[in-house]
Amino acid sequence: MTGGRRPQVPDSYQEAVMSQQSSTPASAGVPGAAADRARLSGGLIATLSGAGLLLVFMLQNTEPVTLTLFFWEFSWPLWLFTLVVASLGAVVWIGLGILRRHRRRVARRDARSG
């Protein structure tokens, strides 16, 4: 190597190369390839761990609790309240992810066309 410097590459070339990259590895579909082995991603591990902890929490907390919101007052089992709140949180989380993905897609489309 000569001094450890990398040659300058025009931005248009980098964009073209980046847009041609595939999300699937080259060894996909090859029998016995490492890509064919079932692997757990970090997101799946986190989701399964969170669901397990939520289940344990719900099984240990079955006593009824009184909930008060403004002028409403009602009694629910704590496990049901936990399940409802976790479900609403998951819906909001997924919804925000969809909005983010849509905004990024629109921004990429605008950048390509204009």
TrEMBL record:
<feature type="region of interest" description="Disordered">
    <location>
        <begin position="1"/>
        <end position="31"/>
    </location>
</feature>
<dbReference type="Pfam" id="PF06305">
    <property type="entry name" value="LapA_dom"/>
</dbReference>
<dbReference type="GO" id="GO:0005886">
    <property type="term" value="C:plasma membrane"/>
</dbReference>
<keyword id="KW-1003">Cell membrane</keyword>
<feature type="domain" description="Lipopolysaccharide assembly protein A">
    <location>
        <begin position="60"/>
        <end position="109"/>
    </location>
</feature>
<protein>
    <recommendedName>
        <fullName>Lipopolysaccharide assembly protein A domain-containing protein</fullName>
    </recommendedName>
</protein>
<feature type="compositionally biased region" description="Polar residues">
    <location>
        <begin position="17"/>
        <end position="26"/>
    </location>
</feature>
<dbReference type="InterPro" id="IPR010445">
    <property type="entry name" value="LapA_dom"/>
</dbReference>
<feature type="transmembrane region" description="Helical">
    <location>
        <begin position="79"/>
        <end position="99"/>
    </location>
</feature>
<feature type="transmembrane region" description="Helical">
    <location>
        <begin position="40"/>
        <end position="59"/>
    </location>
</feature>
<keyword id="KW-0472">Membrane</keyword>
<keyword id="KW-0812">Transmembrane</keyword>
<keyword id="KW-1133">Transmembrane helix</keyword>
